[in-house]
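Thread: Modeling a multi-component assembly for a lab meeting

Hi all, long-time lurker, first post. My supervisor asked me to bring a structural picture of a complex we are working on to next week's group meeting, and I have zero experience with this. I have the sequence lines for every component (928 residues in total). Could someone generate the structure of the whole assembly? Inputs are pasted exactly as I received them:
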Amino acid sequence: MLDTFEILTTSGVVLWSRTYVPVSSAVVNSLIRDVFIEERILPQSDDAGHKPTYRKDGYTLKWTTSKDLGLMFVAVYQSLVHLTWIDKLLDNVRALFTGLYGDQLKASHTTKLDCSKFTPYFERQIHDLEGSSDSTTPNVKLTPPSSTDADSAEESPMKAGALQKPQRPLYDTSADSTPVPTPDHSRPTTPAQSHLLTGKSRPGARLSRRDRKKASGISAMSSGDEASALRRGKSSIKRNRVWGEFGADEEDDSVVLDYSQGDIQDEASGADALQEVNPESWGHKTRKGEFVLKDLGEEMDQIISAEKSKSQSTGTPSGIVGSGLGAIGGLFRNVIGGKTLTKEDLAKPIKGMEEHLLKKNVAREAVVRLCESVERDLVGLKTNSFTTIESTLRTSMEKALAKILTPTSSLDLLREIQTINSTGRPYVLSIVGVNGVGKSTNLSKIAFFLLQNHHRVLIAAADTFRSGAVEQLRVHVRNLQELSKREGGSVDLFEKGYGKDAANIAADAVAHAAKNGFNVVLIDTAGRRHNDQRLMSSLEKFGKLAKPDKILMVGEALVGTDSVAQARNFNASFGPGRGLDGFVISKCDTVGDMVGTLVSMVHATGIPVVFLGVGQHYADLRGLNVGSVCRLLMS
Amino acid sequence: MAWHDEDSWLTAAFAPKLSTVAVALAVTVLLPILLHLYIYRRATPTTLPTFLLLGPSGSGKTALLTLAERAQAATTRTSTSPLAVEALLPDGLTPASSSYRSAGDPAFERARRFQLIDTPGHGKLRHYAISKLANPTNVRGIIFVVDAASVADETGLNEAAEYLHDVLLALQKRYTGAKTSKGPTEIPVLIAANKSDLFTALPPHLIKLSLEKAISNVRKSRATGLKESGAVLTADQGDLEEEREWLGEGGEGPFEFWQMEEVGMSVDVRGGNVVGTDGADVKTWFKWIADQL
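Re: Modeling a multi-component assembly
Sure thing. I ran the full set together rather than chain by chain. Output:
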């Protein structure tokens, strides 16, 4: 069963919600955080026919949005239950809600919206959809709880009303061949359809309800003349009893009249609306309540079909004159602003933007994703006055870049070291990466930075493979020791020579550091090709044994599209539950303004860039300034 | 007929006919009226005094906003976009600027209205807030909402302190970087310690102390931390030394909120709760708002 359904605005106010089983607010919050803000899970397009899903804590969440009104519709249900009709429910509720409250939602400077009237609409939708999905199998839930024989007489006129709805498709299909029925319902002997219907309503108790359900199922599926003939034959036996009991009931008559009018209306509104109508909706309502519901259903269907037709009609241009004027107006508006953006308007500027970003060395995959997210943001939006589409796109892209590059959590290395050290153990930082990107160089730069802050640093040479790797580190350490005399702090090298297992050396180094009062351990690892399974698999063991507090991956700014694969493979190589904690992008000084690698890597993994290497000296290590990188990329 | 004929429309327009006079009169009288009505309708309403709601995600900004608007907090979720609403000061509170007005005065009623702007508090979406801070037109005050229960532990405190540090630094930069001789308007800051009804919540004075301490730490680690890439990447080899600004008293000694008064900010910490078992308790915050109006 559905647990919760919520309608909320992008600004976070829940406008309307229906809770069947209380669900922690953390579930919806994490959906918003992971999907809408951090975009960790990419929403699939609606074209697939399925709404995107998100799973959390045993719940499955499905959602849809209404961009122009800034609304989100979220349905939450237990992952164990498989609900097929949620997609339809989301669509219908969106159409209903925007249809009913669209105008009120456009009012600015307010969050007030009285949605109390929406509950019956929603209930009705649930009933309809549940009914339609269960029509093949008898559903226990839908049997009214209090239907004894005593009040079956009272209920029957209500049923008569409800009954007409399943019959309507039948009525329609035979309408071509039979003459239009007269509104005169008092003559019981004429074989017009309306009489048939009231005749059918006679059997009072549950049995008939099942029959009806079946019948409606048949009529919905086949809706042939044969079925109608069949039913006619069946019901003819009971026809007399109908009119014996209710012939005098004026109200019942008026009801029938009323519904026959409703039939005509529905005929006009088309087959689509007819399918929405469902027999199970009468449930356990009173006679009066049924009438209300009936109207509600019709109104609902009208709203939904109106919204549907609206969304369809917007796609098609309206004639030659209309399109001509539209084109001129569009050109004008393009300059002056106030134009509502469509996919077609955006196609060309977005193409240009794509090219531009590709030139900046952003990987194609990341470009496509950025452009899609920008397009999703902009379609249906109105440009501000005196802004062109291009400039709107530009600001939007800049925002998207800033969003993707901004780290979610704090990247204060010094504070982290302090926190870890206060628990009495050394802070372990390890560096991984492809061959020749500058792992050792950046490691010593980080060591220098830590020495400046008077830390006692132990550098572990866990690259036991490449000849000269240990010697290289020894040179760095010697230099750093000289420098640390001036700067404070102390540094030492931990090495076990070549050919040993890197993971064991790392673990030993951590133990050594703990014993000798070092408070930071920096572990250098061997460079490895990210698509070599044999080399990458040893990283998992390394992660388990050395237990680094932070694993940084060094990537060079020179690399192009491969950066995405590098970041992904390294992120996945530490086994489940452990990934990279950040990137160091080296050689940033060599690429000028083509700093796209940053975006590609962050896009692939959602992991922030911690450091940038910007030169050959120990001090040439920088933090990331999101604003300036965005400006570089957009320039 | 041509335009220069005896009974053409042009001749009629200049002739001393009654109809011409009537039309001319109508135009002269009606045109200004219509113009006035049109412009009057189009004119933007007078800008209200604005209060910015800042703070980390999940501290209760949107809930406070809905409470101010409809006197009852709505259920809220994580915000992804900013929101501005008009709100009315609750009964019993007098705006500081109209303390001598009588209750029936329309000016008094007008003075009670203010605008609240909610910003998303998630780390990736703070640029809304920061851009608002860079150009705070009509901003009378900043309400920085913190979760009084979550600042009790290290991570929550650090997040709040870092955000608050950035906000205060932005405000200080605005003050010190002002070009006019008059100096920019002062923007007071209220630190609203929300959720103080919870058992684990810290009292306001403790929150003040721990925030001050945490901000000192933030400032210290910023000072010792790495420089940002900005100048290196954009400028070729030119001025690599960028000017840095430190929060309060040049970045020396422990940070305390009173130091901000030098740069036109008074920082106040007050406790309250937007939702709770025995209703909302936001009297102190509204009183603060009333003092700024």
